[in-house]
């Protein structure tokens, strides 16, 4: 019986071949259910889910590409044939905590009817960090009395790669939660474990090619693009800033310096002006926003629920920025440190002032990334996603 069926199949196949030999455009492929089976990149990961991931199938005979969203399914229906497969994404624990970025490739895979199961070994990788936060000056220069600080705060975004990178559409973010807070978080997954939770979002404007940064070039993002040495001799001249974050208020609390272009304000938790926390107890990030402003504001808003230390049920508002969009993230802290405010895949430690949050000697000191190498044509800064190691807390680079 089996043999008979085999022969009739052979006969059928011969007829088809003979027929298609006359007509090369005829496609003999049949639909095949393809299942991907993944091996975790480490023995310590016993089970995982896809936080985000994409498998790309390149049909080598027909030159077509097919994509599968791994966060939705690991099964796809393709035409039989020969394929190259690439996989890239981030995996998470069953509770949703992002573990690592992974990828895998397999070439010349035969996909044949009735179904094909493909084993893929995942390996961990760190996406190349092109743009980095080179410097974070959130403490500000002390005022005359030394009781608080001026508005001469700034961030430096630097091209740490060997290629020209465009800064258009890159956002500066401040975390919703602090690194000196520890609450009972009542959401699942826990906030800060799967996304960068942002409470301030200011985006570099541009059409995509307006702000090229050659290797080693940088942009200064300032609170106010003003020469603060006019106010106090040891302050920073930020009239050289490339952008300023401007908050329009009825009372004009934030000056709009005409010569310095404004960042595009997407969101700030503050009803008035955004001041980066000068006790250094937040995380900061730069991210290439993956969707338009309207789409982001409509779809990425989040309310986070937690129980405060006094037992009160609390809600914080913010926006969930996907890990895949984040180019660089840095946790800052002081001696009151409790927890990092980012997924560990972005930054597994924190850069510290080494003193109490309210210690007035923090003013006038800046978080600056260590140099990894300065032997080439431009300086490469150290970015091991381990901010305790990667940063020093010292004199601002823009101080004259
Ligand atoms: Ca401002
Ligand atoms: Ca301005
Ligand atoms: Ca980094």
TrEMBL record:
Keyword Signal: yes
Region forming the signal peptide: 1-20
InterPro entries according to UniProt: DUF4876 (IPR032627)
Protein keywords: Signal
Name of the featured protein: DUF4876 domain-containing protein
């Amino acid at each position: 019986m089996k043999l008979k069926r085999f022969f009739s199949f052979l006969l059928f196949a011969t007829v088809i071949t003979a027929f298609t030999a006359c007509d090369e455009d005829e496609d003999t492929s049949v639909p095949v259910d393809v299942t991907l089976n993944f091996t975790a990149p480490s023995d310590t990961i016993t089970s995982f889910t896809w936080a985000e991931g994409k498998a790309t199938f390149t049909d080598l005979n027909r030159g077509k590409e097919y994509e599968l969203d791994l966060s939705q399914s690991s099964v796809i229906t393709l035409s039989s044939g020969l394929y190259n497969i690439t996989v890239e994404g981030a995996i998470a624990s069953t509770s949703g905590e992002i573990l690592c970025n992974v990828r895998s490739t397999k070439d010349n895979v035969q996909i044949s009817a009735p179904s094909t199961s493909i084993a893929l070994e995942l390996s961990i990788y760190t996406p190349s960090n092109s743009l980095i936060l080179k410097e974070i000056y959130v403490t500000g220069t002390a005022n005359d009395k030394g009781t608080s600080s001026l508005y001469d705060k700034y961030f430096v975004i630097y091209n740490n790669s060997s290629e020209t990178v465009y800064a258009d559409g890159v956002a500066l973010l401040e975390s919703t939660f602090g690194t000196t807070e520890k609450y009972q978080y009542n959401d699942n997954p826990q906030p800060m474990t799967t996304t960068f939770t942002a409470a301030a979002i200011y985006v570099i404007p541009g059409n995509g090619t307006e702000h090229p940064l050659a290797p080693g070039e940088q942009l200064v993002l300032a609170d106010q693009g003003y020469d603060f040495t006019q106010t106090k001799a040891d302050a920073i001249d930020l009239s050289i800033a490339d952008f300023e974050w401007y908050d329009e208020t009825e009372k004009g609390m934030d000056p709009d310096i005409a010569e310095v272009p404004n960042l595009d304000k997407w969101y700030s938790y503050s009803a008035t002006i955004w001041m980066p926390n000068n006790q250094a107890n937040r995380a900061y990030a730069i991210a290439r926003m993956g969707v338009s402003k309207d789409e982001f504001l409509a779809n990425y808003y989040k309310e986070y629920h937690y129980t405060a230390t006094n037992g009160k049920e609390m809600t914080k508002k913010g926006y969930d920025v996907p890990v895949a969009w984040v180019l660089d993230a840095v946790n800052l802290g002081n001696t009151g440190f409790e927890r990092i405010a980012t997924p560990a895949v972005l930054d597994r430690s924190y850069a510290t002032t080494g003193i109490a949050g309210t210690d007035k000697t923090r003013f006038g000191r800046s978080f600056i990334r260590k140099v990894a190498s300065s032997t080439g044509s431009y300086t490469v800064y150290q970015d091991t996603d381990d901010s305790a190691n990667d940063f020093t807390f010292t004199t601002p680079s823009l101080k004259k």
